[in-house]
Amino acid sequence: MKNIKKIKASQPEFDEEAWAEITQDIKELKKPDINQDSKPLIIEIKASTDISSAGSGLTLPELKKDSTIGMDNQTAKKFKREEFKVEAVLDLHGQTEKNAYNKVHDFITTSYAAGKRCILIITGKGLTPHTEDDIFVSRGILKECVPNWLSSTELRPMIMAYKHPTEALGGSGALYIVLRRKRA
Predict the structure, then answer these.
(1) H helices within 11-137, ranges in order?
(2) Measured between alpha carbons, how far apart are the two ends of the chain, in Å?
(3) Which domains are delineated in the chain?
(4) Considering only 27-31, 134-138, 148-152, which range has the smallest mean pLDDT?
(5) Are the beta carbons of 91 and 62 closer than 8 angstroms?
(6) CA–CA separation, 142 vs 64, rounded Å?
(7) How many whole angstroms separate alpha carbon 38 and alpha carbon 35?
(8) CA torsion angle 176 162 126 97 (round to 10)
(9) With 70 as the cut, is the pLDDT of residue 55 above it?
């Protein structure tokens, strides 16, 4: 109770005449007409580049080397003969597995987004001299991993097919990849 008396004592007295003079020109605002029955307007926002538009990675079959499933005959012939011009190359020599995964993922998504049709990933052949009893020697980790990464749910919808190209393009140390067409 003592605190309340102190607060009231410290406040200046309320001057009703001054308040009336200040508020004499104030008019009540008209309330807007709001229809309570109407539903709010929901606007769907779409990304400018939809990487998943190529298809669903969950419904596409697993990607296998040299497979032309899902290609028309003309495209399959061009793929087998390597008639698609290589538009971008990624060289993974000297990369760790983790760095290589990130580079492959970024390379494929940016190539697809740019509308490129054929790319080449150089994994290296992984030819390390070894003896039969040396089980700890690496034998081409990226050469084994990269084809598996191509079948991941993030990358599979963008890839139509892949194979090891002829020796002129890297042979078994490279992957010749045909990307799906980016649909508008």
Answers:
(1) 16-23, 73-80, 97-113
(2) 74
(3) 53-179 (3.30.1370.110)
(4) 134-138
(5) no
(6) 16
(7) 6
(8) 110
(9) no
Q: What is the DSSP letter of 43?
A: -
Q: Which residue has the tokens 């020109």?
A: 25
pLDDT tens column, 74-89:
888 888 888 899 999 9
8 Å CB contact between 180 and 158: yes
Here the tokens at position 114 are: 């740019």
Residue with tokens 């008209």: 30
- Tell me the three state secondary structure of residue 59: coil
Provide the β-strand partners of residue 174. Answer: 122
The helix (H) or strand (E) run that includes residue 84 is none
Alpha-carbon torsion (55, 60, 63, 69), positive or negative: negative
- pLDDT: which is higher, 119 or 67: 119
Amino acid 105 reads: H
